[in-house]
Write a structure and sequence with these properties.
Layout: E1 8-13, H1 19-30, E2 33-36, H2 55-60, E3 63-64, H3 77-94, E4 98-101, H4 105-113, H5 123-133, H6 136-146, H7 148-151, H8 159-172, H9 176-182, E5 195-198, H10 202-219, H11 221-232, H12 245-251, H13 257-282, E6 286-289, H14 291-304
Parallel strand pairs: 1-4, 1-5, 2-3, 2-4, 5-6
Length: 307
């Protein structure tokens, strides 16, 4: 039993840093719920490329945020916020800690800072929105003409923000930058949410990335990507993920088998560097350390809330 609300923590870190293993260990020890902070594991059938927990691990502790959507279904941060609220409510009802774990730290940032409530669209407005989004470049240029201040802060291929900008424009006839001024973000975090980040020496992390890549290939990455391409083609967003796009290039003859594996390692290492940079720049109060250090820090934090 917990003194007040059951605690919640976020465990982040670059890809292949050992987040999932540590989170699983802690979940078993403290009877916690696990919420995946991973933009790829949320899709069904993408098992090897996402390095999601296998059936045995999933049975060890309750997992949420995994295998929710099909690869051709659209996912954005608002769905993650809804998922957090659902799982946190369950955590409170069952008086169990919540561990949020994964590498998609942008979702964590939005969870902490909140997002502005968006206006609802009519059926006709929704159809018009999807029509505009079919040509992302033209949609961005439309927003740029209407609201250059808003588009100065987003990339031309940022589908999420372009969609939200158009949604505001269509529903309110108001430019997004003015709308956001009058509708400030609202955080949905319920209670304190300390952040713990696993850090590795750069060379050691690259070794872990290489080992993980080899394991993925041995477990059937090529067959998985082939199946996904056959069922969904290459258009869905998850088909552009690292580990999938390199295999598709291998299918196209751009890489040999060995080159494909090296490309996955290199691209994953570059992703890890970007993740570390993002975490360092976006989160101010973070407990950082190696796996053993964080195991002790998190255990102490969770134990302090016990009767």
């Amino acid at each position: 039993m917990f003194l007040n609300k059951p605690p919640q923590i976020a465990l982040i870190g670059s890809t292949a840093s050992g987040k999932s293993s540590l989170a699983m260990e802690l979940a078993e020890r403290y009877d916690a719920l696990l919420l995946s902070l991973d933009s790829l594991a949320i899709y069904r059938l993408i098992d090897i490329a996402s390095a999601k927990p296998g059936p045995e691990d999933l049975a060890r502790a309750p997992h949420y945020g995994i295998d929710i959507l099909w690869p051709d279904e659209f996912f954005d941060v608002t769905r993650f916020l809804e998922l957090y609220q659902e799982v946190r409510s369950l955590s409170l009802r069952e008086n169990r800690p919540l561990i949020i774990v994964g590498g998609s730290s942008f979702y964590l940032k939005v969870l902490l800072e909140g997002i502005s409530p968006l206006p609802k669209l009519t059926g006709e407005q929704e159809r018009r929105l999807q029509e505009l989004l079919s040509d992302l470049k033209a949609a961005y240029e439309l927003l740029q003409r209407q609201d250059p201040r808003f588009t100065d802060s987003i990339a031309p291929n940022d589908r999420y923000r372009i969609e939200k900008g158009l949604q505001i424009l269509l529903a309110t006839q108001e430019i997004p930058s003015r709308y956001f001024q009058s509708h400030p973000p609202e955080s949905v975090v319920d209670g304190e949410l300390p952040i713990f980040e696993i850090r590795w020496d750069r060379e050691e992390l690259r070794k872990r990335i290489r080992l993980r890549t080899e394991t993925m290939v041995q477990e059937g990455l090529i067959d998985e990507v082939s199946m996904l391409e056959h069922r969904y083609g290459r258009a869905p967003n998850p088909m552009k993920a690292i580990g999938i796009r390199e295999v598709l290039d291998y299918f196209d003859g751009k890489y040999s088998f060995g080159e494909m594996r090296e490309r996955i390692v290199t691209n994953t290492a570059q992703l890890a560097k970007r993740q570390e940079t993002f975490n360092r720049s976006q989160f101010q109060r973070v407990f950082r350390g190696d796996v053993d250090t964080l195991r002790g820090e998190i255990g102490e934090y969770l134990s302090q809330t016990l009767h």
